[in-house]
Design a protein that fits this description.
Layout lengths: L2 E6 L3 E2 L3 E11 L2 E11 L4 H20 L17 H19 L5 H10 L6 E6 L3 H5 L6 H5 L3 E6 L18 E7 L8 H8 L5 E7 L3 H10 L4 E5 L9 E3 L5 E3 L4 H9 L4 E5 L3 H6 L8 E5 L5 H16 L4 H11 L14 E5 L24 H24 L4 H14 L9 E6 L18 H13 L4 E4 L12 H9 L3 E5 L22 E3 L12 E5 L14 H11 L5 E3 L5 E3 L2 E3 L17 E4 L15 E3 H5 L12 E6 L7 E2 L13 E2 H18 L5 E2 L2 H21 L3 H24 L2 E2 L3 H34 L3
Parallel strand pairs: 1-5, 5-6, 6-14, 7-8, 7-9, 9-12, 12-13, 15-24, 15-25, 16-17, 16-25, 17-18, 28-29
Antiparallel strand pairs: 1-3, 2-3, 3-4, 10-11, 13-14, 19-23, 20-21, 21-22, 26-27
Helix pairs in contact: 1-2, 6-10, 7-8, 10-11, 12-19, 12-21, 16-18, 19-20, 19-21
């Protein structure tokens, strides 16, 4: 996060001190600054040290025969000791640090160090009109050594926000107007070489020793981004630029042209010459955003090296302040030959204007270093996606998403293509009309003893392989129907139902038919979800000793096992305790399985993989009525070798169970109990005989990785999409792809997280979008707030 510090010294001078010093600290996330107050004591030794330093510095120019870019007056000192000069530099540095570390200034110093971080980029602006304070090397303060990404700049106490200018548009080039002035005794050719070697997204116009009118016309001609001057300037007449060997011009005479250039977008001026601070005084009232100058007379080599390092760093993507600091610090390598070279460059700024940024090469988009760098943004997306994924998976683990996930499960189930009816099954239904048959006159329940014995005889004749009676008969057979009692006792392919005692539901249970042995009994119990919908298949359980029904397997499992045994396929348990039929292992449902969280997974449960035909689960297998069988209207091939399920479908029996297909679509999508048993039998047979997949889920680590990947996608979309339209289209496409993948895997029997993935994508993308917008808004407010803030 970038920060801005504005140190306002107020009224005073080094001789008398500064009694009302304020420091304001801006963060981009908050346009309202923090403000700290303090004082700076008198430091009369600093002016004396500086003047002595400046005198010796200029004398070194003459003794070492440097080629400065300014013609200076004869120095009063003729003999200069380099050791003496070095000691003087150290003394000036010590005095500046002692002054800024003094007790009256301690509150500001401490508060800044408390609220700033060494890893943050900091723009540190000193507001003052005092010429001597401006010339001091503020970067020598130990604060800037402790904060390696901070750089100091100078500002006038008063400034104004610029009107909206024709700022650089995406894809446009950086326009540079380079003035190579009077080059007598210096080499401006190297400055030109450095500018020509910039990246392709720059357009540089060179004016080599121009005439004053030529310069004036160019400033009026078009919108420039950078103004560069190399050559001689004068310290006698402030603001004088030597354009060629005969012509010079003051900045006052270029005032209108410069004003127009600034209005059209001039954001940075670089004066690679001397007396830069004198030039700045004539530009500040024009409110130019940024100026880079040299504090003192500058050797040719130092000016050229600074320009090269600065342009390399700035055009390479660093912020203006970071590029200046890097270029300035690299000048330290020249100080053995050119003492104090790193003291010379300084930024002079208009705090109400954002510093210029260099656009990215290629696509022309700006690098907004006031927000996040590319790598920093990627780190933010990664961190945010991990946080969001952790939160969503935590909420999911608590079961708070289960209702939504089961709703999505139902939608996926309803959307699957038809599979056709299971040809291994036949369902004999008992309808309202079947209650009126003459064979049913003596019935106690849904099916009389006479009708049942005749039905069993017909099915035996038609060679049914397995018969399942899905009707409760907890009463003895009528003594008049001794043949029925014998059949139920001895017919090996006949299975009947009972119901296990349920203490929680306060249900006593229902006994099996008295004549059917335990090994041919199957319980009818099912496990419904909280919304009453049947999505799970209860294969087995261990009934309590007090239960009237002690069958260990459900009717569907008993029928499937008997049918498969005729094909030489048996059921067993693996060493891990999982049920295996043939080569298929039926992995039991756990408390946390897919969208089920903290579910009651008692017994041996699996997910129920419905079979649909004509978009409904009701037609899982062919059906005939009781009357059709008793009246011989059923063909032999409809029965031979099949499992025949007998049950009631009459509405008056109230034996209907909601299914995922009911989903607010009406009563007809509810399923009679006998159809439910057929669905369960078909699931087992289809898995073992046809290789039809059982519904399963990924391991927890796989689900977490899947949800995180979509969370990451949501962040990447916000990062890369530059408009709301593009973001909306991309998000819609991503959600469509997510649903298609989830649906495709579901058709293959794999239930993966859909709702958590949608939430992860939307929450991560939405959070990052809000964060980005707030940061961008804060950046604007952060700048606009200067004029409104009390100084």
């Amino acid at each position: 996060m970038n920060k801005l510090v504005v140190l306002s010294l107020g009224k005073g001078d080094l001789g008398n001190g500064f009694g009302a010093v304020t420091a304001q600290l801006w963060e981009q996330s908050d346009p309202n600054p923090m403000k700290f107050t303090g004082r700076l004591p008198p430091a009369p030794e600093i002016p004396e040290l500086y003047r002595h330093w400046q005198l010796l510095y200029k004398a070194l120019y003459q003794r070492l025969d440097w080629c400065p870019r300014i013609k200076i007056q004869e120095a009063d000192v003729t003999n200069v000791s380099e050791v003496e000069f070095s000691d003087l530099c150290q003394g000036l540095s010590n005095s500046i640090n002692a002054w800024l570390n003094s007790e009256p200034f301690g509150n500001i110093n401490q508060q800044l160090r408390t609220h700033l971080d060494r890893s943050e980029e900091i723009r540190f602006i000193v507001e003052t009109n005092d010429n001597l304070l401006r010339r001091l090397p503020w970067h020598l303060w130990k604060f800037f050594e402790d904060y390696p990404k901070a750089e100091v700049a100078l500002s006038a106490p008063e400034y104004q926000r610029l009107k909206k200018s024709n700022v650089q548009t995406p894809g446009s080039k950086v326009k540079i107007l380079a003035i190579l002035g009077n080059s007598q005794g210096i080499d401006t050719g190297k400055d030109r070489v450095f500018l020509e070697q910039l990246s392709d997204n720059t357009s540089t116009e060179f004016l080599v020793e121009p005439q004053p009118k030529q310069l004036n016309d160019q400033l009026w001609k078009q919108g420039w981004d950078i103004l560069f001057f190399a050559g001689h300037s004068s310290s006698k007449e402030k603001g004088l630029l030597q354009l060629n060997q005969t012509d010079a011009i003051t900045l006052d005479k270029l005032r209108n042209a410069l004003k127009k250039a600034i209005e059209r977008g001039l954001r940075l001026a670089i004066f690679n010459s001397c007396d830069g601070l004198g030039l700045v005084q004539h530009l500040e009232d024009l409110h130019i955003p940024q100026v880079i100058v040299m504090r003192e007379p500058v050797p040719d080599v130092v000016a050229q090296e600074f320009l090269r390092h600065f342009l390399t760093a700035f055009s390479g993507g660093q912020s203006l302040y970071a590029a200046v600091r890097e270029a300035r610090e690299r000048l330290q390598g020249l100080e053995k030959q050119y003492p104090c070279a790193a003291w010379l460059p300084v930024i002079c700024t208009n705090p109400a204007a954002e510093p210029m940024t260099w656009p990215e090469k290629g696509n022309g988009r700006k690098r907004d270093h006031s927000l996040l760098s590319r790598w920093h943004r990627l780190q933010t997306v990664l961190l945010l996606s991990v946080v969001v994924t952790s939160a969503i998976m935590g909420v999911r683990h608590l079961g708070m998403l289960q209702a939504w996930e089961l709703t999505a499960f139902d939608q996926l189930m309803r959307s699957r293509p038809d599979e056709g009816q299971d040809p291994r099954l036949l369902i004999v239904t008992i309808t309202e009309n079947d209650f009126q048959l003459k064979e049913q006159k003596q019935r106690k329940g849904s099916l009389s003893d006479l009708a049942l014995v005749q039905l069993l005889e017909k099915l035996k004749t038609l060679k049914a392989r397995t018969i399942g009676l899905d009707i409760y008969r907890d009463y003895p057979v009528d003594p008049k129907q001794a043949d029925l009692a014998a059949r139920m006792q001895t017919q090996e392919n006949l299975f009947a139902i009972c119901k296990v005692r349920d203490q929680e539901a306060n249900h006593p249970g229902i006994s099996p038919p008295p004549n059917v042995p335990t090994e041919r009994q199957g319980f009818s119990d099912v496990v419904k979800d909280l919304d009453g919908v049947l999505r799970r298949h209860l294969l087995a359980m261990k009934p309590g000793p007090a239960s009237p029904c002690t069958a260990p397997y459900g009717l569907s499992a008993q029928l499937a096992f008997h049918y498969l045994e005729a094909d030489g396929i048996s059921a067993k348990y693996t060493p891990q305790g999982d049920l295996q039929v043939g080569n298929v292992v039926f992995n039991r449902l756990q408390a946390h399985t897919g969208g089920y969280q903290k579910v009651d997974a008692w017994g041996y449960q699996i997910l129920l993989n419905y079979r649909s035909y004509h978009r409904t689960p009701l037609e899982v297998a062919p059906t005939v009525t009781l009357a059709e069988v008793l009246n011989d209207r059923v063909k032999p091939d409809q029965v031979k070798g099949r499992i025949v399920l007998i049950g009631v479908t009459a509405e008056s029996a109230h034996d209907y169970i909601p299914t995922p297909y009911s989903g607010r679509q009406g009563f007809y999508q509810e399923m009679p109990g006998v159809i439910m048993q057929a669905q369960m039998v078909s699931q087992i047979l289809s898995a073992v005989k046809d290789g039809r997949p059982l519904l399963r889920v990924w391991p927890v680590w796989g689900e977490i990785l899947w949800v995180w990947s979509w969370s990451f996608v949501g962040g990447i979309l916000v990062w890369h999409c530059q408009s709301r339209l593009h973001l909306g289209l991309a998000a819609g496409a991503a959600l469509s792809v997510l649903y298609v993948v989830c649906f495709g895997l579901f058709t293959q029997g794999i239930w993966i997280p859909l709702v958590p993935s949608v939430l992860a994508l939307v929450v991560t993308g939405g959070s990052l979008l809000v964060y980005t917008i707030s940061r961008a808004t804060a950046t604007v407010a952060y700048t606009d707030n200067f004029e409104r803030s009390p100084k």
